[in-house]
Every structure is written in C-alpha cells, then in structure tokens.
Amino acid sequence: MDVVLDNLDRFVQGLTTTLSLTALSWVGAFVIGVAVASLRVGPIPPLRGAGAVYVEVVRNCPLTVLFVVFYFGFPSIGIILPKFASAVIILSVYTGAFVAETVRAGFNTVGRGQVEAARALGLRFAQVLGLVVLPQALRAVVGPLGSLLSALIRNSSIAFSISVIELTGTTFQIATETAEFIPVFIAAAVAYLLLTLPTGGVVGVIERRVAIKR
Amino acid sequence: MVASLGVAALVVVAIQRFADRGQLDAEKWSVLAEPAVVGFLLGGLANTVKAAAAGMVGAVTIGAVMALGRLSRNRPVRWLAASYVEFFRGFPLLLLILFSAFGLPRLGVDLPLFWYLVLGLAVYNSAVLAEIFRAGILSLDRGQHEAAVAVGLTDGQAMRLVVLPQALRRMLPAIVSQLVVLLKDTSLGFFVQYEELLRRGQLTGNFDGNILQALIAVAGIYITVNMALSRVARRLEVRQRRRYGGSVEVKGPGPRTSSRWCDSRRPRPPAWVADRPVTAPDLVGVRAGLEIPGLPAAQVAGHHVEVHARALGDGATAVGHGRAMEEQVVAFVASHPPPPR
C-alpha cells in the first residue's frame, strides 16, 4: 500500500496523460468518424469506396501494428512526429473507423421520410446531412459511442509501445522499480475503473437527455 | 468532386513521397519474397496463431464457467462470477499481459513466455465471452430447460445435455467474431518480446534495412487473415440458418445499403434493410454488445428496438441489451415463420 501512496504523484501524472491522450484522440476520432460516415453515404462513388476501404483496413489491423508502423516505419518516408502527437494521431485514426461504423448505423435509424421531406424542400446533400440526418443520427448512437469512448480509454494504454508514459506505462515503471507488483497493479485497475465506470454513467444520462421522444 | 480530387491527390502525394525517399525501390520489397524472410514471417504468423488458439481455448473454458456462475442459484457464486467479469472487462488487456509476464515470475510462477501471453489473453477474453455465453443461454427458450427437468434430468444434466449444446451452437458465429479480436490482441505479445508476427516483422525489417516495407507486409497479413476469419463467421451464420431455419427478414425503414439514401440520381431500391435475415444468434450477439458481421446496428434499431450500450472489448460497435428489444424481435420472428423449403 505504501508503494502506491509514495508514488501517488506519479500515478496522478500518468492518469493525466491518459486523460489528455483520450480527450484529444476522441475529438480526432469523432471528426474522422463523422467525415468518413458522411463520405460513405454520399453521392460520389469513389469517395464511398475510399471510406469503405479505410474502415475495413483499419478495423482488421491490430492497434499495436498501427502504432509500430507509424512510429518506426514512417520516418523512412520523412514523417517524424513527437511521441505524444503520434499517439493521438494513431488512436484517432483507429477509433475513427469504429466511430464511422457507429455513425453510419445511426444514419440508418433516421426514417427515409425525413430525407425525402428534406430533399423535397430543396435541401442539397450537405444540408440534408448536416441539418436533418446528423442531429438525429447522433442522438441515436450516444450509447454505442460511449462504449467506444471507454474502449479508447483502455486502448490508450497501447501508446506505451512508443514510450508514451501514461497510466499503464507509469504502473509498469513503478512496479519494476519497486518489485511490488500486486498493490501497484491493483491501484492501476482501480484507476481505470474510476475512469471507465463514470463514463458509462455520464453517457447514460446524456443518452436519456437527448433521446427523441417518438 | 472536389473531395474526390482531394483523395486522389492524397494518394498521389503519398506515392510520390515513397518514391522520393527510395522506398519504392525494388530491392526494398523483393527482400520480403526471399525464402528465408518468408519462412521467418510465416513462423511469426504460426506463433501468433498458436497463442491465439491456446488463448481461445482457455477463454472459452473460463468464460463458460463464469457464465454458468452468473446464472447459478447460489448468491455468492453469482456475485463472484459477476465481479470477475466486470473487473477484467474494464481492465486494459496490455496491463494484464504485463502483469502476467513480469509480475508472475517475481511471485514465483515460472512458465515459458508463451504461457504468460496466453494467460493474459485467456483471462481478459473469458470475461467478454462469459457475457456472450450468458446471453446465449438466456436466449434459449425456457421450455427447453423445463422439458429436460420434466423428463427427469437434474439441473446439471439439463444444462449439460440440453441447454449448453444448443446455446453454444447459436453462439458459434459470435465466438468466431471474438476470435478475430483475440487474434488482433496477440500482437500485444510484442511488448513482452514474444516472437509473434509483428515482432518478427520488426526484426527482419531492422536486419534488412526495410523496416517500413516489412511492417506494411505484416499489416497486410493481419488484414488478410482477419478478413478471412470474418468471412468464416458470416458463412457459419448462413449455414446455421439453413440448417435450423426459424429466421425471417426483419423489414425496416431504409434502403438496401445506407450508401444510397441521399443520391437523387439513382432509382430508389426497394424499401428494405436486410443484407441478410436476422437470426436468433444475432439477437444474442446484439444483446451481448457485439458487432455482428453483415448486420448494421440499425437493422435491429430500425425495427423499433430499444438499444442500450455496454462497454465491451476492443471497441466493438456495441449496440446491445435490453430484454424489451429481444422480446419484440423474438415475437416478430415467431409471428413470421420461415417459408417452407
């Protein structure tokens, strides 16, 4: 127990890194996800294809492989970024594919009549999407997006592969320095639960707030 | 149009970039086709598959035990199984594997490296599978268990001989889908120096000075294998549906694929959603929060189905849960018997 208290500041530091990594990546993933989902329902065939390829490739590739390719492979073509920025980009790209699928599922929950009515009023594709479909679709998938967020919190631990020292990295360092594996890992488990459990609760509240009463 | 050009430009710039830095040079890529390198990488793939297979066997076994525990009549047993599942599902798998590989040896457990990785994979995935199994067992008609008890089987026999075989068969596609997740997760063996595919890709890349090409090849292998496995899961679904019937097409709002709905230049396809019929295993999978191959969440959601989300492993698109949902769809399936063949 002393091990945990003695190193509390380092744990807090790790937790902060995990949080900022998650928050920034979530923003990136959300933007990518909505953009790709929009491409996939759009009127331009090559873009629909590009969106589909992106989602298939990224979803079937392990996150660790993406990290390693980006951080160890891409310098060969002159792309060299700081560790933290690399981690944010990779987590955004990876999670973005899942967000895209979820948002696309949300599009399908919006009734056809909505789209037809909007088109009948003379709205263009971007207007139909932005003003009519997206606001309804996003409300429908708040819950699934919440699960993706807590998956992202857990996945951010893989940033350790490129030595971003977040919660998992901190835990591992403290554990190897002190050789006190059990208390340190239990502390980390509690920290992760403290992050993921409230996420679920907050998402539930938002879900109820924004639900469309039909 | 502008966006199309943008994507095309991006591709051109990327290729240019590769070419400028000499990364398209034939020898950088041709090394990958040398028998020694191919053999080395395939050996890595074999190690990956071995770890995934062993992890899967462990995960299925522990998962089944935990699912039964959660359905037990004994309150402490139920509580223990529930805490196991909730605890390990919320835990990053990487932390578990690090603990297993570095923590256990200090606690006096001495195993080959392979088994530490397998242990981590098995424990984490067993928690996910336990939820799938539990949903599978709950999805089975109560009458099955009641009938079994009525003909004189004990509770345990009814479970073992009647309920479990049917539930497992229903869950098979979901289990294969989870196998894809597990196979991806074996790449975490990279962290503990286990020589799986990714680690070997890095080793050969460093050795031959073509790290980028080697890693791209590794990514390609992963993507190919995982796509093939996903296809197997879908095939299993279809076969199961043919053999056991009992499925219908759930009609809902929306075009055949979501990709056409805003495109005024095309004739509208007939109102439909199903890429394929929705079956009982789908519902179970949906309940467990899994992503079902070929079944967008909206197909179930479009059928006026209440959807709640639960956190699950590896960012699976979670759309599951709610008895209300299941009951409605089951009622729908019941009232629409499949056409005679």
Task: Tell me what the structure shows.
The complex is a heterodimer of chains A (214) and B (341). Chain A is mainly alpha-helical. Chain A has a single domain, classed as MetI-like fold. Chain A contains ten helices and no strands. The mean pLDDT of chain A is 90. Chain B has 341 residues and is mainly alpha-helical. Chain B starts with a helix and ends in a 6-residue tail after the last helix. In chain B, helix 3 packs antiparallel against helix 8, helix 4 crosses helix 6 and helix 8 packs across helix 11. Chain B is built from 13 helices and no strands. Chain B folds into two domains: 220 residues, MetI-like fold, CATH 1.10.3720.10; 78 residues, no CATH class.
Number of helices of chain B: 13
| CATH fold-level name of the largest domain in chain B | MetI-like fold
The top-level CATH class of the largest domain in chain B is Mainly Alpha
CATH homologous group name of chain A = MetI-like
Helix proportion range of chain A: over 70%
Instruction: Tell me the domain tally of chain B.
Output: 2
- Just name the CATH architecture of chain A: Orthogonal Bundle
Terminal-residue CA separation of chain B: 48 Å
Q: For the report, how would you describe the main beta sheet of chain B?
A: none
What fraction strand of chain B? under 5%
CA-based gyration radius of chain A = 20 Å
Short structural description:
The complex is a heterodimer of chains A (214) and B (341). Chain A is mainly alpha-helical and 214 residues long.
